[in-house]
């Protein structure tokens, strides 16, 4: 651990002082490691007009650069694939098959998955939330239409201090969002942001205005004003 010169120096220090010194060094190292663990990380993903060129990359699975749409998709998939305990999705529109499969796989490997969807978007062509629900993934939507369930966020391992993350922004889980729109998503492990989104998800999940898809007695009055 120490070289001969350091060992001789340490031996020349009075024992009590030496213990104090070693304790100080140990605490300092421990604090530094803890700060590393607790360090907030932020990963930003912006979709711009340039991402239209990434359309083929979603099929070829080639990454053209740090702002590639396929890289963004891969980041989202990795997040779901690395979930150990829970995945909570509140998503206005979810039609990307890759994300559908990743969520279903997480559910099938024992991760506690819950999905909150928008009532009207459930009936939109390509929406995959009903399909997830038909495969026993717990999913809820508002019971009545009094506004859009317009959220776009996902929590990973929300109760796990070292692995908790939240992904939030404007991006629906659709091809259009990845290549045709101007969008923004932020991925962070920041504990207070994760906590706030986690509280909001639980509030929605337990809210009397939301019900499991199979049990909601839903009247869709006007599906024409949907957006993707
Ligand atoms: Zn690309």
What is the CATH class designation of the largest domain?
A: Alpha Beta
User: Per CATH, which architecture of the largest domain?
Assistant: 2-Layer Sandwich
Number of strands: 8
What best-fitting shape do the alpha-carbon axes yield?
globular
First-to-last CA distance: 60 Å
Word description of this protein:
- With 228 residues, this protein is an alpha+beta fold.
- The protein has 2 domains: 4-33; 41-212, Endonuclease, Chain A (2-Layer Sandwich).
- It has helices spanning 4-11, 15-38, 57-60, 69-81, 97-108, 129-134, 175-179, 191-205, and strands at 42-47, 86-91, 112-117, 139-142, 152-156, 165-169, 183-188, 210-212.
- It has an 8-stranded mixed sheet, sandwiched between helices.
- β5 and β6 (165-169) form a beta hairpin.
- α4 (69-81) packs parallel to α5 (97-108).
- The protein is globular, with a radius of gyration of 23 Å.
Defining traits:
single chain; 228 residues; alpha+beta; Endonuclease, Chain A; 2 domains; eight-stranded mixed sheet; 8 helices; 38% helix; binds zinc ion
Compact description:
By secondary structure, the protein is an alpha+beta fold.
How does the SSE layout of this entry go?
Blueprint: H1 4-11, H2 15-38, E1 42-47, H3 57-60, H4 69-81, E2 86-91, H5 97-108, E3 112-117, H6 129-134, E4 139-142, E5 152-156, E6 165-169, H7 175-179, E7 183-188, H8 191-205, E8 210-212
Parallel strand pairs: 2-3, 3-4
Antiparallel strand pairs: 1-7, 2-5, 4-8, 5-6, 6-7
Helix pairs in contact: 4-5
The protein binds zinc ion.
Residues 54, 57, 64, 68-70 line the site of zinc ion.
């Amino acid at each position: 651990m120490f070289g001969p010169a350091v060992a001789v120096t340490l031996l020349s220090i009075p024992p009590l002082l030496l213990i104090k010194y070693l304790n100080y060094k140990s605490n300092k190292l421990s604090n530094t490691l803890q700060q590393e663990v607790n360090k907030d990380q932020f990963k930003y993903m912006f979709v711009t007009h340039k991402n239209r060129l990434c359309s083929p990359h979603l099929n070829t699975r080639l990454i053209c650069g740090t702002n590639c749409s396929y890289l963004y998709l891969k980041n989202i998939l990795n997040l779901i694939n690395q979930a150990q305990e829970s995945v909570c999705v509140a998503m206005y529109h979810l039609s990307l098959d890759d994300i559908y499969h990743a969520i279903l796989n997480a559910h099938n490997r024992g991760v506690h998955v819950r999905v909150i969807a928008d009532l009207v978007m459930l009936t939109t062509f390509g929406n995959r939330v009903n399909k997830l629900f038909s495969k026993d993934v717990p999913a809820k939507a508002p019971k009545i239409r009094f506004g859009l369930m317009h959220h776009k966020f996902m929590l990973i391992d929300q109760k796990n201090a070292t692995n908790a993350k939240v992904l939030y922004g404007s991006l629906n889980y659709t091809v259009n969002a990845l290549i045709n729109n101007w969008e923004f998503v932020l991925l962070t492990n920041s504990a207070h942001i994760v906590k706030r989104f986690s509280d909001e998800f639980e509030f929605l999940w337990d809210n009397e205005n939301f019900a499991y898809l199979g049990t909601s007695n839903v009247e869709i009055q006007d599906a024409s004003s949907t957006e993707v």
